[in-house]
Design a protein that fits this description.
Layout: H1 3-28, E1 35-39, E2 42-45, H2 46-62, E3 67-70, E4 74-76, E5 81-89, H3 91-94, E6 102-109, E7 112-120, E8 125-130, E9 135-137, E10 140-141, E11 154-158, H4 165-177, E12 181-183, H5 188-196, E13 202-208, H6 210-222, E14 226-228, H7 232-238, E15 240-245, H8 251-257
Parallel strand pairs: 3-5, 11-12, 11-13
Antiparallel strand pairs: 1-2, 3-4, 5-6, 6-7, 7-8, 8-9, 9-10, 13-15, 14-15
Helix pairs in contact: 1-2, 5-6
Bound molecules: L-MYO-inositol-1-phosphate (LIP).
L-MYO-inositol-1-phosphate binds near residues 91 and 187.
């Protein structure tokens, strides 16, 4: 592991944990104006903004030549080294006191994730990976499911108003017709960390933003899984469909999902 990545991994783990504890504190102290709406069923809390600002201030103080792309305040800096941060992934769960939410921090070189950290405070789970170094949760090695049978498989799904409702309903029908089971938990980052730990055999969402996905992408790849999504600048600027799969689930699942 190069020093560049080792240093950034250590800092990202510290930062994700500190940010998670801050989000929990802000939730406990929330007042009436804690939540506002960005769009249909798309929310932001004062904690999303405060946590992102905290992460940004520390990252840019410790790595001043790096850039950062955050969900709430966008891109700051111009560098091939870029941090991609979702301060609270699963905001709609967090604001209701539901447990499936996480801090998601990826460090990318020329748009490709090299380091990924996801901290889910309500689960007390810190998953992380560095390219070529394997994937871990709470410092124990993790790997994707070995399941090869669709009728034994669980697929995690996500959707938002950014995608077609009819396409999502068609997808659910295809999943059921292929004898797979499915769940939708409202947080891409938590779903991706569950796939990396072998708790589910795959995840699919028709559109994810880079901050939802990139930490989970490198963690699943290092846990032995397959991830299909846009690369580099395309992912950073527009996001894309994200399909993550345990390696033994054969191509039939890809046909079921009718994804390219
Ligand atoms: C959420 C994702 C989820 C997606 C939602 C939203 P947020 O992230 O984790 O998978 O379906 O539309 O993007 O907004 O809570 O950070």
């Amino acid at each position: 592991m190069t020093d560049t990545y080792s240093t950034r991994l250590g800092f990202a783990k510290f930062l994700a944990q500190e940010a998670g504890f801050l989000a929990q504190k802000l939730y406990r102290e929330r007042e009436a104006d804690f939540v506002s709406t960005k769009g249909l069923q798309d929310f932001v809390t004062q904690a999303d903004r405060a946590v992102e600002a905290h992460i940004r201030s520390l990252l840019l103080r410790h790595f001043p030549s790096d850039a950062m792309l955050g969900e709430e305040d966008g891109l700051m800096g111009d560098s091939s080294s870029i941090w991609v941060v979702d301060p609270i992934d699963g905001t709609a769960n967090y604001m209701r006191g539901l447990p499936d939410w996480a801090i998601s921090i990826a460090f990318c070189w020329e748009g490709e994730p090299e380091v990924g950290v996801i901290f889910a405070p309500e689960r007390n789970e810190m998953c992380w990976a560095v390219k070529g170094q394997g994937a871990f949760c709470n410092d124990q090695p993790i790997q994707v499911s070995a399941c090869a049978a669709p009728d034994q498989a669980l697929l995690l799904l996500g959707r938002s108003a950014r995608g077609s409702l009819s396409a999502y309903l068609d997808l659910v029908r295809s999943v059921i017709d292929s004898e797979m089971e499915y769940r939708r938990n409202g947080s891409a980052a938590v779903s991706l960390m569950d796939v990396a730990q072998g708790r589910a055999e795959g995840y699919y969402e028709a559109h994810l933003n880079p901050w939802d996905a990139l930490a989970g992408v490198i963690i699943i790849r290092e846990a032995g899984g397959i991830v299909r999504c846009a690369k580099g600048a395309e992912m950073l600027t527009a996001g894309s469909p994200v399909l993550a799969l345990a390696r033994n689930l054969d191509g039939k699942v890809l046909q079921t999902l009718a994804v390219e």
